[in-house]
Amino acid sequence: MFVEVKNVEKHFGDFQALDDISFGVEQGELVALLGPSGSGKTTILRAIAGLDRQDAGDIVIDGRVVNDIPGSERGIGFVFQNYALFRYMTVAENIAFGLKVKKVPKADIDARVKELVELIGLSGKEDNYPNELSGGQRQRVAFARALAPNPQVLLLDEPFGAIDAKIRKELRSWLREIVTQLHITSLFVTHDQEEAFEVSDRVIIMSNGRIEQIGAPAEIYSKPATGFVACFAGNAPMVEDYGRFNGFEKERPGSAAVVRPECVEAFRKDNPEFADVLPFAQPCVLEDISFRGFYRELTLNVDGVRIYAHRGMGRRSQLDVGESMMCYIDRLYIVDDKSNEVEILENSLLQ
């Protein structure tokens, strides 16, 4: 492993921000630290960067324990959420800043700046100031400034958080291409599941200062290891009384189920498109409709239990809040109350 975090702990007063954190990152790998606010993601990033000292454990970069090495000497490039560009410096001057601090010869600085400006697609804007750039362009300059000294490791803290949705999606693809092209070891922090799954080679999901699961995006989503991962990665609720759903018997006392929207289909009883699954469905009430852009999220009340379903915008039938519908669920993610482990349970009526 090129970067290793070994048994790291961190306290802020009585609050334990990191609880025995251990993981590794291969050289050239792009890893996402994913979790809700307060889960410890940024604290890990700052410990690796040398911005904050951990209370216990080791940070290892390229085989060297760097606990006592200043952040400026760890070979780290850091990209902040708010760009942190110097307002009174041009694009070229911002990119060159770290190289000037290191007293790199001017000819080498000029060549490196030109190379990076071309890499980030901002040729012709070298003399522009940050307020003359869009949010996406400013973030590209921040990337270039972090890359200028040829760091061994690139760290990104919510790098797309201050950018609008359309540009954010474009920059995600751009980041993936740049990291692959440069083969630079990278970790980035995000609370956005879609962002983490789209960009990264592996995802580390965190909660309350602990690691819940590490794996490839598809593995994390399809095979959640804990109840928290099943809920958070799937953006879905936990239901205790899942035995009332058709096709599912609650065999284990104390267990609960995560009901993901993609596992739920809601339709009118007279809709011929769903005639084959009608015998497996059960009545529900449409409580709410939320517009999500390319789909609508339906809030359903199934015998007193609230679950969600997604409905594509291409369907022409108009739905009304309060109307009676039918729904069926093809699988549940069962969470054991003692071990917190997850088991996928298929609908017995559909088998």
Shape category:
globular
The number of domains is 2
Give the strand order of the largest sheet, numbering strands 1, 2, ... along the chain.
Answer: 6-7-8-3-9-10
Question: What is the CATH C-level name of the largest domain?
Answer: Alpha Beta
Q: What structural class do the secondary elements suggest?
A: alpha+beta
- Total strands: 19
Report the major sheet.
Answer: 6 strands, mixed
CATH homology superfamily of the largest domain? P-loop containing nucleotide triphosphate hydrolases
Mean pLDDT: 91
Based on the coordinates given, report the CATH architecture of the largest domain: 3-Layer(aba) Sandwich
Give the low-confidence spans: none
The run of helices and strands is: EEEHEEEHHHEHEHEEHHEEEEEEEEE
Radius of gyration: 24 Å
Percent range for β-strand residues: 25-35%
Distance between the termini: 44 Å
Structure annotation, total helices: 8
CATH topology group of the largest domain: Rossmann fold
**Helical fraction:** 10-25%
Account of the 3D structure:
- This protein is α+β, with helices and mostly antiparallel strands and 351 residues long.
- The protein has two domains: 3-231, Rossmann fold; 237-350, OB fold (Dihydrolipoamide Acetyltransferase, E2P), CATH 2.40.50.140.
- 25% of the residues lie in helices and 32% in strands.
- It contains eight helices and 19 strands.
- The protein has helices at 41-49, 91-101, 106-119, 135-147, 165-182, 193-199, 217-222, 227-234, and strands at 3-12, 15-25, 30-34, 56-61, 64-65, 76-79, 153-157, 185-190, 202-207, 210-215, 238-239, 256-258, 264-267, 282-291, 295-302, 305-312, 324-329, 331-335, 342-346.
- The strands form four sheets. A six-stranded mixed beta sheet has the order 6-7-8-3-9-10, with helices on both faces.
- A hairpin with a 3-residue loop joins strand 14 (282-291) and strand 15 (295-302).
- Helix 2 (91-101) packs across helix 3 and helix 3 (106-119) crosses helix 4.
- The longest helix has 18 residues, at 165-182.
- It starts with a strand and ends in a 5-residue tail after the last strand.
- The mean pLDDT is 91.
